[in-house]
Amino acid sequence: MKFAIISAGEGSRLSQEGVQLPKPLVQLNGVAMIDRLIHIFAENGAEQVVVIINNEVPLTKEHLAELKKTSEVPLEVIVKTTPSSMHSFYELSAYLKDDKFCLTTVDTIFREDEFFRFIEAFKTSDKDGMMAVTDYIDDEKPLYISTDEGLNITGFHDEATSQCRYISGGIYCLTPKAIDTLEKCMANGMSRMRNFQRQLVADGLHLMAYPFSKILDVDHASDIVKAEAFLNRKE
Asked: CA 14 → CA 23, 105, 141, 220, distances in Å?
C-alpha cells in the first residue's frame, strides 16, 4: 500500500501570523509535520510515500532532498505549484494507480493509534474507499458527510443535513478506481477535493466513513499549540 501527502499550499495564513517556517516544516512537539507523517506511514507498512510540494519554497525542497537520503521508506518528491489540492492529487496519481493508497494533506493531525486501526480496516476492506471522519468541528469551511446507519457514505455537503453526523477529516483511503473519477474531474475542468469526493458518489463508488475521535488542521499559528496539546492528550 502506498501513501501520499499533499503539501503544495503556500501556508499564507501561518506566515501572515508570524510563523517563519513553511507549513511542512512547522514543528509539533519538536518534529516537522511532514517528517511526522512520513514516519507514521512507514510504521503502517508503506511501500512508498509520494509527496508534492510547491516550487516556491526552497527550504522545503532542501529538507526533503536530505530526508530522501535517510528515509525509512522509499520517498518520491514532486515539485510543482498547483492551483488546488485536487490538482495536486492529480500530479500524485501517476504513482497510485496500481494498489490501494492513503492520501492526506501535510497539516492533518490525528492520533496514531486511531490511524493504525483505520489503515488496517481498509487493508482488509472490499470497499472502493474509506474516509476518515470526525464529529469534532473546528474548521472554517467543514465538508459534511451524510451516511446511512451502516456508515456507508451517501453524500458530501457544504451545509449540515439531518443525516450528517460527521465532517471530513481529510484522510482518504482509496482504490485505483478513484483515479478514473479524478481523471474525469480534471477533463471536465472541475476543482476542489470536495467536488472530487462528490463525483466519487455520483460514479457509484462504495465509500465507508471511519470515525476518528478528533482530527485537526494547522491553518493558523494558534493551531500549533492546539495540535501539540491534542497529541499530548492534554487538550
From this structure: 7, 15, 17, 5
Q: How far is CA 99 from CA 89, 136, 152, 174, 205, in A?
A: 15, 31, 22, 9, 16
Residue 133 binned pLDDT confidence (cut-offs 50, 70, 90):
very high
**Interval 18-62: pLDDT, tens:** 888 999 999 999 999 999 999 999 999 999 999 999 988 899 999
> 19, 218 in Cβ contact below 8 A?
no
Nearest residue to 206 via CA among 125, 123, 101, 128: 128
Using H for helix, E for strand and C for coil, what is the string for 25-37? HCEECCEEHHHHH
Query: Which domains are delineated in the chain?
Result: 2-231 (3.90.550.10)
Q: From residue 117, how far is each of 105, 121, 123, 212 by CA, in Å?
A: 19, 6, 10, 10
| Residue 235 pLDDT exceeds 60 | no
